[in-house]
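G.,

No rush on this.
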Amino acid sequence: MRKKNRILLIIICILSVCVMAGLIAFAFDIQTRMDLKNKQAQTENQTDNMTARDDSIPAGYEAGNDSDDSNATGDGNITGNGNETKQEAPAKGTADGTDAEGSGTKENDNASVTPIPEEEQPAAGSLVLAFAGDVNLDDNSTPVKKYDSEKKDISKCLSEDLLKEMRDADIMMLNNEFAFSTRGEKTPNKSYTFRANPARVEILKEMGVDIVSLANNHALDYGRDALLDTFSTLDEAGIDYVGAGKDLERAKAPIYYTINGKRIAYVAASRVIFAGSWYATEDRPGMVGTYDPALICEVIRQAKAESDYVIVYVHWGVERTNYPEKYQRSLAQAYIDAGADAVIGCHPHVMQGFEFYKGKLIAYSLSNFWFSRATVESALLKLQIDSDGSIRPQLIPVMAKNNYTYLITDNKERDKYFNFIKKISFDIEIDDEGILSPKEGDSSAAE
C-alpha cells in the first residue's frame, strides 16, 4: 500500500473514533438529563402515588403489632397485641386533667370572614362538629409548594366557601398525616416519610382546625423526638390532639369539650401502624393501636360515662379502595356497642361509603382533604347536634384536584357525587342538602 493511502486510512480511522466518541458523549448527556428529569418527577409525584408498601410488617414483628392490612381476618376476629387489653381506662378530663370548656363559639383568626346570616344560624342550644380526612404539610409536598407559590394565601388552596364551613364549625377535626419537626431521622425501610416545619402549623389555624388525630402511619416517620416536637407545636398553637402522646395514658386519653351544655369526647386510634416500636407504653411516646379493639372500647366506655357524646376517629382500611374491609365494619360496630355516637375513618386516600348501625353513623373514609395533587372525591362531614340531643349528619360534597380543595356547587356535579356515595355506601339515603339517613326499612339502623 502506498504511503499516501496509508496516511489517508489513518486519518479516516482517527476521524471515525472522534465521531464515535462525540456520539457517545452526546448520548450520555441526554441520558443524564432524562434521569434527572425522571428523578424530579418521581419526587414531585411521591404523595400522588402512595401504595400500601408503607403498611408492610417489618421483619421481626409479630402479626397484630403492625399495619399490614392482610392481618385482618375479614370475619371480625381481630388479632392484635395482647398487651393492649391489659391497660387501664383513661382518667377524666383532657390530657392535663382539666376540661376544655367551650362557650358555643369558636375563636376565629380570620375575622374578615363574613358571619352566617342570623336566619341561617343553628338553633339555640345546637352545635356543629365538622370532620375532614387526610392532610399533608410535608415541606416537599405539592400542597405546601402550592401554598408557597400563592404567597401563603390559603384561599388559593381551599375555596373560600369551604374555609367558611370549617371556621364556622364549633369543633373542626382532621387527620394530621405527618410530624411537625426539624429533628429526627427517616424511618428505615419506609417508602414515604412526611415531616413539616413547625411554622406550618399556622396553616391548620388558618383552616380553623381545633383538634387533629395523630394515630396514623406517618406521625412517627422521623422518630420519637419529632413526635414530641409535634405535641409541643400543636400545644403552642392551641390545637388539641388525640391518638398519640408522651406515654400510653396520654395517648389513649379522650379530649373533652363542653359547648352549649353538651359534653363531647374525642377518641382516636390506628389500625395502620408501621412497627411495634410505634406503640405508646407507660414510659415511651407513641400512639394507640386498635388491631385488638379491647383497649379502645374500654376508653370509649369510660368516655361515654363522662360525656354526652363520644366521637371515634380511626385510621384503617386499604389504600385506593372505595369499599371497607370486613374488619372495618366489625370494629366500627364494636366501637358503637361500647358507646360511640359516630365513627369517622381515614387512610384509604379515597372516599369510602357510609353506614348506620344502631342509628349511629359510620364514615369509613373521608378521603384526602389536602394531601396531594391527585384528583379525588373528598368531603366535609358535619354532625349537627340539635337542642333535643339528636345528631343530624350532613355530607358536604368536596373535590380535591391539583392541590386545590373546593366545595362542589354545580347541581349536576353534586348529583353525580351523591350518586357515587350512595353506590359505595350501605343502605343510606342522601337528600338534596346532603343530609344522611338510613334507608327506610333498614333494621340495622334501629336502636
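When you get to it, here's the other one too:
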Amino acid sequence: MKKVLSLVRRFLPLLFSVAVLVYLFGYRTDPRETLETAKGVEPSMLALAAVLGIGSFAFQAARLKLLVQVIGHKVSLWRMFLYTLLGHFYNSAIPGGSVGGDAIKALYLSQSTGSKATAFAAVLVDRLCGLFMLAALALIVLLPSIHEPSMRQAAYVIIGFTGCATVAIALMTSRRIRKLIPVGTSRKLPFSRAIRAFDDAMQAYRGHKKGLLAALLMSILPQAGWIAMHIAIGRGIGIQLDWHEYAVLIPVAGMVAALPISFGGWGVGEAATVHFFELRGVAKSQALVLSLMGRMLQLAWALVALPFSWAMPKPKGMKEAIADEEEPTERGNGASVEADKAPQAKLE
C-alpha cells in the first residue's frame, strides 16, 4: 500500500500537467492555429531568445558561485554552470523522480565543496534570492499601471506570493515562535524537512549580510535575461506588447508555475500565461506558444549538459550516501538542526 501511495504521490503532478496541457490544446486554443503560430516564428528572434536563455543560466550560475564563495568555498564558474543546467533538466524532464532538480544541483555541488550542508544551504538561498527579486521587479514595473483591471489581477498574484513567502520565512526564522514548539514535535509538522533545511541555511549565512545583498542584487541579471528571452519570442510570433507588460506577466506566470501542484510547472505555467496575456489582448494560441517555446529553449540548453553528467556520480547513489548519514538532531528550540549536518529535504 505504501508503494502505491508513493507512486501516486510521485506521478500525480505529471498527470495533472498532462491534463492541463490537453485542456489548453483541446479546449482553450485551436490546435491548428497554435501550430501555425509556432511555425511562423521569426528565426532571427528565436536565435536571439536562445542566446538570452543561455545568458540567464550563466547569470544564475554566477549568483550561486557568489553564494558559495561567501561561506568560504571556491568552485569554478563552469562547474556552477553545469550544475545549474543539470538541475533545470531534472526539474523539467524527469517525471516522478525521487530527487528534485534543486536537490540534484546541491548534491553535485557537495562533491565540489566537500560539505553537504553548505551545498544545500547555498542552493536554497540561491532559489530564495531569485524568487524574491523576480517578485520585486515585477511589482516595481507594475505600479504605474496598477489601476488597470488586468494588471490588478497580476498584482494580487505578486502580493499574495510574496506575502505568503515572507510570512513563512518569518515563522521559520523566529526564535520566539520556534521556542513554543515542544521538543520532538517539529519532525511531525508538514514540510518538517524543508523547515530544518531552511534553518541550516540561515545558520550557514548568518553574519554574511553583504554577500547575501550582493547575491540578491545579482538576481536582477538572470531574471532580466529570462524576461528578455520571452520578449524576443513574443516579437518573433507577432505579440504586440510593451516590454514592461512582459516584465509583469512573465514573472506572474512563473510564480503560478512555481506552485507545487504540477510537474515542473508544465501546464500550470502555460494556463497562467494564456490567462494573463489574454487579458492584455493577446490571442490564446500566441500566449500558449510563447510559454511553450520559452520552456523548450531552456530545456534544449539543459540537454547540452547531459553528456557531461555521464562522467559524474549518479544522483541515486549520491542520495543514498546522504540518507546513510545520521539524521539531523534537534536543538532545544524544537525546530533547528546542527549546522554541520546535511539537510535531507527535497528542495523544490
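Confidence is low (pLDDT under 50) at residues 323-348. DSSP finds 16 helices and no strands in the chain.

Enjoy the weekend,
O.
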